[in-house]
Amino acid sequence: MRLLWNRFRADRSAVFGAVVAGLLVLLAITAPLLTALEGQDTTSFHNDLVDSARGGVPLGGFGGISPQHWFGVEPQTGRDLFARIAEGAQVSLLVAICATLVEVLLGVAVGLLAGLSGKLVDALLSRVTDIAIAFPVTVFSLALLAIVPETFPRPLLVAVVIGVFGWGGTARITRAQALSLRTRDFVAAARLSGASGWRVARREILPGLAAPVITYGALLLPTNLIAEAGLSFLGVGVRPPTSSWGQMLSSATTWFRSDPVYVLLPAFMVFLTVLSFTLFGEGVRIALDPRSTRLSRKAA
Amino acid sequence: MTWTRSALLLTAGVLLGTTAACGGGTRTAGGAFDPNTCQGGTLRILNQKDAGSHLDPARLYTSGGGNIPSLLFRTLTTRNRAGGAEGAKVVPDLATDTGQANADATVWTYHLRDGLKFEDGTPITSQDVKYGIERSFAAELPGGAPYLHDWLVEAEDYQGPYKQPAGIPAIETPDARTIVFHLNSPHGDFPYLATATQFAPVPKAKDTGADYEKHPISSGPYKIDSYQKGKSLTLVRNENWSRQVDGNRLACPDRIEGSYGLDAAVINQRISTGSGEDANAVTTDTDLGPSELAQLDSNPELAKRVAKGGFPYTYYLAFDTTKAPFDNQKVREAFTYAVDRQSVVNAAGGSSLAYPATTFLPNNKSMGYQAFDYFPAGQNGDPAKAKQLLAEAGFPNGITVTLAHRSDNSNGDGPAIATAVQDAYKKAGITVNLQSVDAESYPQTVGNPATQPQVSIQGWGADWPSGGPFLVPIFDGRQYIASGGNFNTAHLNDPAVNAEIDQINKITDPAQAAQRWGALDAELGKKAVDVPLYHSTSLRLFGKNVRNAFVSDWTGVYDLSAVSVK
Q1: Are B426 and A43 inside 8 Å of each other by CB?
Q2: Distance from B341 to chain A by nearest Cα, in Å?
Q3: d(Cα B56, Cα B132) in Å, to the nearest integer?
Q4: Mean pLDDT of A279-284
């Protein structure tokens, strides 16, 4: 474990990713607190801060940035952008994390079952996995999100929809790893000593899956964040007045000339989150990969 | 009267560029305009969509005959081609006057003027007008407004000339130049209806049924040179038309070329830049959006090329006044006091694209607009007064309601307006839960009393600029439709209101009728049967070479039969 930590720490970009990702999570967790500190909230309209005759463009430079409104205000409504970005962080990260969890749980379950069961079950589950990977996820999510009743909690729904269609990759990796682990001597030993299939899976195979699954999960997270932003951008994600970065980007697209700050803020947040989590995930992968150690030793 | 009315009207309005107006006045981009020397050049139309999904006079749903359709189809009457309130008047087109009515406005007689010809040179007769109307009853050619169907004596079961060649007995053509309509009830507004494209003549010999839209026979100043549905339309001069037989259309350009399928931002950018042929460009379906207004400030040349107007339109909060809590006048008043109209106007695009509504009728003379504000909430609402009224009504701890809105903002009844209302109501102790309804199914959801949401954002525009089509479908108790397609969302059925509507329908003088419609609106306003939110207006660009782009109160946009590119 210490070795892992040392190797991770030596990777500067991974540390940067971890720190930024940590700060983003902190922003999401403390969003209501920070917004209260700023003295604003996410839904209050400020008619006095926008120029009504000019289409509602924020008064003042840089999208109306001021000591009262740290990130300026939204055009037309005058709602505080810092509060909405922070709330968006909550929504975006929560959806991305939940979707990743769903994907990992489903993927590991299917992958393990396929890898450790007989040929017939394996063949069947592998084909199902192929279908899950080949499925046109965006099109299907659009259709599904449009027909589910409004009363269903929206962020949860988006997380489940992304998760339920994204487990294919995890399942494939888990199956491959399980297939290779089941032929090892220690697994055979456990089998011969009379351990049940369930016990073998849980005690012998599962620990060996940790490294690839954690790595893959860390890389899935930014993908899922983009998926949520995409669905909200298309208008089927979270609903107003709740904000999300994708939704903000969607309404900001026409404002790029008259209020660039409004477009750049959510775009930068998505960029920063995806970058930091990807760097973090890469760092974890390299730290956990025994081959990369040999390479780096050679290089050293 | 079907549920598609407002949807179709809006579509027709937007598509045909008949959307329209409260501003007005002449705006030209260059020197003095002279109608006698305006002929020549090619006018270009840059549009998002085709000029009506079907270019068949039977299938078009227009206000005042449409903008592009009116270049091809002349009708018994038409809208006056003038700016401002003058443009909201009906004038004769094919006919010699706007119609002679009998004493109770149930029989309307028209005489055609001399020298009228189709594009192929055959004379236009009253039988051609009658045939055009009968075609619009055919199930094969749906899409037109339902008025003729409802108003003509015993015509509701008529199947169209293909199945019933005998025609409609309620339309008589005693000679080639006379046509008489028999109505089942008084309709002083009949001259307004006669501006619709269903009143355009169609030569029976050239009728190809559903294929007629590929090349409809022109009675107007232009005829079709080429037409690719959804892509392009090229019009050239109709040599059998002249200004001698048409006092309304100037028809300045020699040629008109339309391109469809363009993106809104691209259209505005191309007209704004105006390079090459785009200097001659106009659009009949693309307004400036709120985010595009700031550039008008920094570019005075561009600011001169903006037509200001707006198709008269009202957005309001609708609720069922027969159901609790909205059966209580105090609750309805509280909802009116609590609304922050400045927020609502900003959410609708700001003061250049909307103005606050305290009346149901928009601020248009022809509608009979009378200013009133019985529950003065000021610009930003009066939450204290609203709270007090709610307490008196038995809700001292506030009230929770569900507010339905369309899932997107493109129709002015979407989440932007809903969140503005929600935020203002919070201050008055009214908790609003938003219900987003899919854009396509929103009209059906609201128009069916079984699925009608508790509160919903509604928009309404009239098929012609009179108080009747603005008020009757919304407030006439006999227009309530329990099976769906209902616009009387207040479920109002007040015998006094119904009786007054019947009385006004008998009036054939538009000015006199307008005055009564305005008074009726004020009476309804006292009952707080809805919460008026805002009236929309619009800004539309035209090319550098485009002249005489005046805006009427009827359409709210410039008129293609009047503009010049020379």
Answers
A1: yes
A2: 10
A3: 10
A4: 86
> Which helix (H) or strand (E) element contains residue B426?
helix B415-427
Chain B: closest CA distance from residue A216 (Å)? 36
Q: Is B378 on the interface with A (CB under 8 A)?
A: no
Residue of B nearest to A253 (CA): B291
- Give yes or no for a contact between A81 and A69, defined as CB atoms under 8 angstroms apart: yes
Cα–Cα distance measured from residue A56 to residue B417, given in angstroms and rounded to the nearest whole number: 14
CB contacts of B268 in chain A (<8 Å) are none
| Complex prediction ipTM | 0.78
Q: For residue A175, which phi and psi values (nearest 5 degrees)? A: -60, -45
pLDDT of B13 > 70? The answer is: no
Residue B392, pLDDT score: 96
**CB-CB under 8 Å, B295 with A55:** no
Interface test with B, best of A150, A152, A251 (most B CBs within 10 A): A150
> Which residue has tokens 């090349």?
B215
Nearest CB to B350; choose among A54, A257, A259: A54
Among A195-204, B346-355, B461-470, the range scoring the smallest mean pLDDT is A195-204
Cα A160 to Cα A87, A148, B550: the distances in Å are 20, 12, 55
Of B427, B421, B448, A244, whose CA–CA distance to B435 is shortest?
A: B421
Higher pLDDT, A3 or A59: A59
Q: Total domain count for chain A?
A: 1
> For residues A129 and A197, which has the higher predicted lDDT (pLDDT)?
A129
- Residues of chain B neighbouring A255 (CB-CB closer than 8 A): 291
Residue B47: the pLDDT is: 95
Lowest mean pLDDT among A279-293, B18-32, B280-294: B18-32
| Number of neighbours of residue B205 by Cβ within 10 angstroms | 10
Q: Which structural domain range is residue A249 located in?
A: 1-297
CA gyration radius for chain A? 23
Q: What is the CATH number of the domain that holds A3?
A: 1.10.3720.10
Q: State how far the Cα of B239 lies from the Cα of B121, in Å rounded to an integer.
A: 9
In percent, the amount of chain A with pLDDT more than 70 equals: 96
Nearest-CA distance from A165 to chain B in Å?
24
pLDDT value for A299: 43
* Segment A142-160 mean pLDDT: 80
Q: Which residues, other chains included, contact B290 with Cβ-Cβ below 8 Å and sequence gap of 6+?
A: A55, A56, A75, A76, B349, B350, B353
The string of pLDDT tens digits covering residues A192-248 is 888 787 888 877 888 888 888 888 888 888 888 888 888 888 777 788 788 888 888
Nearest CB among A47, A146, A254 relative to B342 is that of A47
Which domains are seen in chain B, by residue range? 7-257 (3.40.190.10), 313-536 (3.10.105.10)
Q: Compare CB distances from A52 to B297, B345, B418 and report the shortest one's residue.
A: B345
Which 3 state secondary structure label does DSSP give B63? coil
Closest CB to A56 among B346, B419, B434 = B346
